[in-house]
Amino acid sequence: MMKKVLVTGGAGFIGLNLVNAYLKDGYEVVIVDNLSTGKIENIPTGVTFYEEDIRSQNFIEIVKKEKPDLINHHAAQIDVQYSIHQPVEDGSINILGTLNILEAARALKDEMDISLIYASSAAVYGDPVYLGIDEQHPIQPISYYGASKYAPESYMQIYHDLYGISYSIFRYANVYGIGQDPKGEGGVVSILVDKIVTDSLFTIHGDGEQTRDFIFVDDIVSANLLASKHPINTVCNISTHTKTSLLDLLQIAEEIIERKIETVYQEDRPGDIKHSYLLNEKANQLLNWKPQYSLKEGLAKTIQYYKEK
Ligand SMILES: NC(=O)c1ccc[n+]([C@@H]2O[C@H](COP(=O)([O-])OP(=O)(O)OC[C@H]3O[C@@H](n4cnc5c(N)ncnc54)[C@H](O)[C@@H]3O)[C@@H](O)[C@H]2O)c1
């Protein structure tokens, strides 16, 4: 029988890539998104769309009516700076919003099996005390966003223990790819791609030696498809296990476009983590998942898409 998935945040960057992959894989897809950062044009035909807040009572009614086999929860407030200034709203969306989703799953679980996927973040680790970061690394978020992404992990584990609701929690490294908005908290890759396509100056904060673990969104999607079939009932990193400095990233981009990118240097941003990369052995063991894209391949696909657009 055709499986039904409800994707929260399906009008956002990662969500839109997930939705397209689920459709391709034969799933029936329902999206719930309040379009706070998501875009209506990201929603393809052939899905059922509810413009609704995940915190609303109506959300629970939607779940009861649609009876999805799986809720893939990607809706969130993702702006770290916003979380610092508006911790209550950040916590409300990320913590209470996820709790409402868990309550909706609980409302259904006597009727049918329902499982969950939750997109968490490397932000839960805070400043690394060692590299590469594995899942045993201390949880010491340095922003409210990191804290509000972590709290739902605990709730989800308890809902599993109390009610037997299956789940998979993924802590993503820095995701990039098609559909990412360079204007929001898009991340450095989407900003770089935007500067390339619009032929404008790219700003480097600090010395450019800071490193990140950049993962292409298609690799995020493949991990989600695997966990959709086999929930892992635990948490794992989804990352490339590779550290890339900003200067390396620039060089790779220059190789792809075969020209120099104009840059300007500015001072370090306070609160920025200097180095980060995450191990991914646990995801490999539990899901038989591995990232398939090198940074050069993922970046080339992303640049090409925006050039043609
Ligand atoms: N992009 C990354 O690098 C990254 C890294 C780690 C974790 N994540 C997580 O992945 C998920 C998706 O991130 P993204 O980069 O696609 O962000 P995004 O902002 O593009 O997508 C989030 C979506 O959620 C929707 N949304 C926000 N609040 C909502 C609410 N209260 N009710 C209903 N819908 C709401 C937005 O409209 C948007 O469509 C988030 O949970 C984020 O924390 C992303």
UniProtKB/TrEMBL annotation:
<dbReference type="GO" id="GO:0008446">
    <property type="term" value="F:GDP-mannose 4,6-dehydratase activity"/>
</dbReference>
<protein>
    <submittedName>
        <fullName>GDP-mannose 4,6-dehydratase</fullName>
        <ecNumber>4.2.1.47</ecNumber>
    </submittedName>
</protein>
<dbReference type="InterPro" id="IPR016040">
    <property type="entry name" value="NAD(P)-bd_dom"/>
</dbReference>
<feature type="domain" description="NAD(P)-binding">
    <location>
        <begin position="6"/>
        <end position="302"/>
    </location>
</feature>
<dbReference type="Pfam" id="PF16363">
    <property type="entry name" value="GDP_Man_Dehyd"/>
</dbReference>
<dbReference type="InterPro" id="IPR036291">
    <property type="entry name" value="NAD(P)-bd_dom_sf"/>
</dbReference>
<keyword id="KW-0456">Lyase</keyword>
